[in-house]
Amino acid sequence: MGEVIAVVSGKGGTGKTSVCAGLATALAEFGESVLCIDCDIGLRNLDISLGISQMDALSFMDICRGEYTLEQAAVHPEYPGLRFLTAPMNCQPEHIDPSVFGNLLRQARKTCSYIFLDAPAGIDAGFQLAARYADRILLVSGADPASVRDAARAAELLELMEKPELRLIVNRINLRMVSAMKLTVDDIMDRAGLPLMGIVPEDPQVTLRAAMEKPLLKKNKKGAAAACRRIAMRILGLRVPVEL
Fold it and tell me: Rounded to whole angstroms, how far apart are CA atoms 100 and 121?
């Protein structure tokens, strides 16, 4: 059975979506079958980070309503093992029946090794929908105080939802800025109250590759791409040192 991984953040601007795309494509590179679902209704951008913004894609509600099958989900042109469902238009998260969404995920578990849910930023209905059925939750935070505070609040809510597999990814790390703030990654972990899954450096290639409509990891071995590969290896259960 496949594993459902929700990628969440306490606030916007942490780079959650680019991390989600990076991890999904890394696992597809490693030969895993992956389904990416954009759960950010209204502000859907996962297709941009995946480098497939020009592709037509079904929404997850198209599948939930039985209008199409999971086999008809868009296939990434450069990663044949990676499929994609976008967020629906003209729909509010609070109006989605969680049990119907859960049925979709149960179907996906039968054919996919990993199902990534790109949750909307914040702690509203979309966040809770993505977290509800997740086996593992990756909470993405920046190093700035507001991001860390909001990550701690999101972690508290997830613990109330009895989510045991909860890990922190510190994204967009700029060593010079962190040093100026007299912060360490251990400090960020302590303030967020979470064990660490990985750290990802600030990398202009994230924005550049999205603007070029190319996935970050394609022909890119350094920076954020390398960090996403290391975290993906940890998801696979491999012991990989944490480094920038």
Answer: 22
